[in-house]
Amino acid sequence: MNLEALRDYCLKLPGVTEELPFGPDTLVFKVMGKVFLLTPLDSPQHSFNAKCDPEKAEELREKYPDVKPGYHMNKKHWNTVLVTGSIPSEELFSWVKDSYDLVVASLPKKTQEELKNQ
User: Fold this and answer.
1) Does residue 77 lie in a domain region?
2) Number of structural domains found in the chain
3) What is the CATH number of the domain that holds 52?
4) In this predicted model, what pLDDT tens digit does every residue of 75-103 receive, in sequence order?
């Protein structure tokens, strides 16, 4: 997975926008205005932050050395994933989708309905 593949995948999900709210160095993906993924644009090491169920977050950190507690995020609910090639791209994309789904599930019912109708 490279940055362009990550970006393409995120933008294909319903209701997703990309923004640079923290300056030109961090690309942020939101679903219906809520953040579900961040990725640095200026880092020599490709990585991303994704929301994760707290129990699964711990399991992934134990299983994969390239999964760390979320950098500058709530470490209980966010992981930083270093994209080094040690984790298959399919697995990485599934974590992105999990993050998206967690955020969608936390949206107000009215907003979830709007998303379904897009």
Assistant:
1) yes
2) 1
3) 3.90.1150.30
4) 888 999 999 999 999 999 999 999 999 99
Place of tokens 């926008």: 17
Q: Which residues of 77-114 are buried (b: 16+ CB within 10 A; e: fewer)?
A: bbbbbbbeeebeeeebeebbebbbebbbeebeeebeee
- Kindly state whether residue 118 falls inside one of the protein's structural domains: no
Task: Report the distance separating Cα 117 and Cα 15, nearest Å.
Answer: 10
Residue 115 lies in a domain: no
Count CB atoms within 10 A of the CB of residue 26.
17
Q: What is the pLDDT of residue 76?
A: 84
Distance in Å from the first CA to the final CA of the chain: 28
Residue 114 lies in a domain: no
Domain hosting 69: range is: 3-106
pLDDT tens-place string over residues 35-73: 999 999 988 889 999 999 999 999 999 999 999 998 888
